[in-house]
Amino acid sequence: MNYDLFDYNCIDFRKLLLLKGKSLHLSDQATHLLMIMMTLEELNMTPITPQRIGEYSSLEAQEIDAIMLDLINSHYVDRINGVLDFSPVKRKLLHEKVEEKKEINLVSLFENTFGRALSATEVSFINDFKRSGYDDEMIVDALKEAAKSNVLNFRYVERILQNWAKYGKKTRREENEETSQFSDEVKNYHWW
């Protein structure tokens, strides 16, 4: 992708979306919501939530929420650390190849970790995590952290996610990458 086009705002993606939304197999409502979301992002009106979008749309909040989840699950919009990223739809508008994220089945992952089937309330917790802007990988890392601490409940996973979002920690993998900057000699030194 030519990042100069993005950096200097050479392309009006909302106009391009309006003209090419149908060719991307987007419904009129999804195109409408994407245009509102991109406008809110440009105006720095964050966070972009269904309630905020509802202020500018005649759609019901549940409809907005369902369309937003569909846009994220269909990889038109990504969530990075709780913030919506519109680069996938922009790449699609420019006919560039969009790398597909590996689909993670969070329900089965939680069931395997907890060792039991989840209730409908617990499945709604997972949906709430996704609606709050946490990406699948971050939720998986929080679940692993809870399992490592041997505290297997949704409130604990939720607190981990909230703390990571509050203090800017994105994922556990970043910690490991930071520690890998030390040479093997330092890592394997017998300090005692």
Question: What does this entry show, briefly?
Answer:
The chain has 192 residues and is mainly α.
Mean pLDDT: 78
Q: Class by helix and strand content? A: mainly alpha
Shape, principal axes of CA atoms: globular
Could you please say which CATH topology of the largest domain applies here?
A: Arc Repressor Mutant, subunit A
Q: How many DSSP E strands?
A: 2
pLDDT < 50 stretches:
170-179
Number of helices: 12
CATH hierarchy class name of the largest domain: Mainly Alpha
Strand content: under 5%
Strand order of the largest sheet: 1-2
Q: In sequence order, what are the helices and strands, one letter per element? A: HHHHHEEHHHHHHH
What is the CATH architecture term of the largest domain? Orthogonal Bundle
| Gyration radius, rounded | 20 Å
**What's the story with the biggest beta sheet?**
2 strands, antiparallel
User: What count of domains describes the coordinates?
Assistant: 2
State the separation between the terminal residues, measured CA to CA. Answer: 51 Å
Q: Bin the helical content.
A: 55-70%
Q: What would CATH call the homologous superfamily of the largest domain? A: Winged helix-like DNA-binding domain superfamily/Winged helix DNA-binding domain
Protein name: DnaB/C C-terminal domain-containing protein
Pfam families: DnaB_2
Domain DnaB/C C-terminal: 108-173
Family: Belongs to the DnaB/DnaD family.
